[in-house]
Specification:
Radius of gyration: 29 Å
Number of helices: 7
Shape: elongated
Largest sheet: none
Structural class: mainly alpha
Order of helices and strands: HHHHHHH
Length: 178
């Protein structure tokens, strides 16, 4: 007997006329309860993270700058052409770039953005080689911004600093945007 025939004769199982939708139990909702998300608690947690982050950012950034300087010294020992050392500096740039903007230091983000674009250019362009004349001013600028705790855009001095670094990077053929 075919399945269709069996379905017609068996009173217990009826042929389905369409899709049957089954809603599985929501175990997460059962655990959390009906209260939902406490938006006030989330706001308080965000404020606490910002306060702690701002207090800790200075230490984190100083540590990153120290690692960057050490990495640059290692790179200089290889005549500035060791790809692994360049990648190590690049990772430090990315770390600093992300945290700078998060904690109110957009100059750190901009400086490390320019430096990371330059290092990426050196890694991806066979004729390009890392130059101390490009890297050193970026490290020095980061030191000034962090030691003077220059938050925000730094005003006229910040704009002048960024403009100078931009020109240095553009002269190499690397791009600064993106």
């Amino acid at each position: 007997m075919a399945d269709n025939d069996r379905a017609k004769t068996d009173g217990a199982s009826k042929p389905s006329k369409g899709a049957e939708f089954v809603t599985p139990p929501n175990y997460l909702k059962m655990k959390v309860g009906a209260g939902g998300i406490d938006k006030e608690a989330i706001k308080e947690a965000e404020i606490a993270i910002q306060v702690l982050g701002h207090k800790m950012y200075s230490k984190w950034a100083d540590d990153d700058l120290g690692r960057m300087r050490a990495s640059f010294e290692e790179l200089k020992q290889t005549s500035l052409d060791d790809a692994d050392s360049v990648k190590k500096m690049l990772r430090i740039c990315w770390d600093m770039k992300g945290l700078g903007g998060t904690f109110g230091y957009p100059l750190v983000t901009t400086i490390t953005h320019y430096l990371s674009n330059y290092l990426e250019y050196c890694l991806s362009t066979e004729a390009a080689h890392v130059s101390a004349a490009v890297v050193s001013p970026h490290i020095d600028a980061l030191y000034v911004v962090l030691s003077q705790k220059i938050s925000g855009d730094g005003g006229a001095i910040g704009r002048e600093l960024v403009s100078g670094l931009e020109k240095v990077v553009l002269k190499t053929g690397a791009r600064i945007g993106g």
